């Protein structure tokens, strides 16, 4: 490579570093703006989903009509879908950005091999990439990705197992305890 080509390579690596900084600052700004909203949304969805599933299990045991339990299960599925969509979108955006940056950095390192000024700029770019990893978080408490959704799903499933195991069975197979209590109260 000639000196003017090396200078062009150094300038393009410096431009990529500047663009990476700008993209990182933009992603950080988006995260700062929406992280509290996402935390509140996910807390609301988690609470709503667990309560929907609890009442679906309870109403199933109370022998109420199946559509009522089905409506609660549908609400829980909608909540789980919302949490999955947020986790997937956040994780996909971060993964796509990291994949593109890794490909660009690998190409730059190959092109800069043997030229100290270009290698130094490429090393600065890689150090900047390692130091400034983009993550979307919920209130800064946990990263939003599919690992979050899997742990959330496991928590809800464990809660349901506990509810089903410790809910007492009905007094008689075909009678609801609420109806049984009402009929005995009237006789007295």
What does this structure look like?
Keywords: Cell membrane, Membrane, Transmembrane, Transmembrane helix. Pfam families: 7tm_7. One of its GO terms (biological process) is sensory perception of taste. It is found in: Cell membrane. It is a single chain. This protein has 188 residues and is mainly α. It has one domain (3-187). The protein is built from five helices and two strands; from the N terminus they run H-H-H-E-E-H-H. The chain has helices spanning 3-61, 66-112, 116-131, 146-166, 177-187; strands at 137-138, 142-143. It has a two-stranded antiparallel ribbon with strand order 1-2. Helix 1 packs antiparallel against helix 2 (66-112). Mean pLDDT is 73; it is low at 182-188.
List the helices and strands and how they pair.
Blueprint: H1 3-61, H2 66-112, H3 116-131, E1 137-138, E2 142-143, H4 146-166, H5 177-187
Antiparallel strand pairs: 1-2
Helix pairs in contact: 1-2, 1-3, 1-4, 2-3, 2-4
Summed up:
The protein is mainly alpha-helical and 188 residues long. The protein has helices spanning 3-61, 66-112, 116-131, 146-166, 177-187; strands spanning 137-138, 142-143.
């Amino acid at each position: 490579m000639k000196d003017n080509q090396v200078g062009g390579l150094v300038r393009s690596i410096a431009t990529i570093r500047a663009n990476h900084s700008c993209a990182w600052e933009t992603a950080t700004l988006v995260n700062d703006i929406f992280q509290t909203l996402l935390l509140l949304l996910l807390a609301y969805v988690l609470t709503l989903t667990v309560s929907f599933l609890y009442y679906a299990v309870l109403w199933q045991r109370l022998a109420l009509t199946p559509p009522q339990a089905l409506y609660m299960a549908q609400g829980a599925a909608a909540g789980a879908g919302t949490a999955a969509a947020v986790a997937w979108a956040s994780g996909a955006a971060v993964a796509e950005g990291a994949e593109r940056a890794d490909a660009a950095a690998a190409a730059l390192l190959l092109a800069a091999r043997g030229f100290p000024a270009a290698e130094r700029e490429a090393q600065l770019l890689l150090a900047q990439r390692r130091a400034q990893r983009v993550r979307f978080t919920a209130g800064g408490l946990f990263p939003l990705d599919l690992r979050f959704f899997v742990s959330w799903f496991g928590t809800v499933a464990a809660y349901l197992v506990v509810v089903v195991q410790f809910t007492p069975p009905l007094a008689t197979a075909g009678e609801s305890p609420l109806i049984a209590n009402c009929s005995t109260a009237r006789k007295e």
